[in-house]
Amino acid sequence: MAEKKVENAELETKQYIVVSIGNEQYGIDIGYVDNIVRMQKITRVPKAQPYFKGIINLRGEIVPVMSIRRKMGLEDDVITNASRIIILKIEEKGSLGIIVDEVKEVVTLATDEIDKSATSSKNVKDNFINGIGKTGDSLVSLFEISAIVDEKENA
């Protein structure tokens, strides 16, 4: 009698910070996240792209801040007490802040809990998503960080 092979013995897992933007939940790979800070004064920069909100001074480091809502073609940000700026560390580009409505939780997803096939759409918003994570009974759209920080205007 042949032994059954255990397929799921070594499933790769990744941690994501779950944030809300509008009514939807999105996951950001925790490997990119350097810091999460409260909303603060953002200094405007003239002639910047519409989704680029400006810059902040984070402990002496100047960090550009973008509106992920504007980048995805959604309505403008509504700043509340729950709003946060997530500071991403991108190797070749340095730090970048993105404004989110709220930081919810950290989830760990195994590779079999991520559906990559749901993202082959021509919708601009979907270009920023590289998979859908299933956590409990809710779904989390997982951000493709490289597409978000890319400077090309996705029109």
Automatic annotation (TrEMBL):
Stretches assigned to the CheW-like domain: 13-154
Pfam family, one: CheW
Transmembrane regions listed in the UniProt entry: none
Annotated signal peptide: none
SUPFAM superfamilies reported for this sequence: CheW-like (SSF50341)
Gene3D superfamilies membership: CheA-289, Domain 4, SH3 Domains
Domain of life: Bacteria
GO biological process: chemotaxis; signal transduction
GO cellular component: cytosol
Protein name: Purine-binding chemotaxis protein CheW
Species the sequence originates in: Roseburia porci
Species classification: Bacteria, Bacillati, Bacillota, Clostridia, Lachnospirales
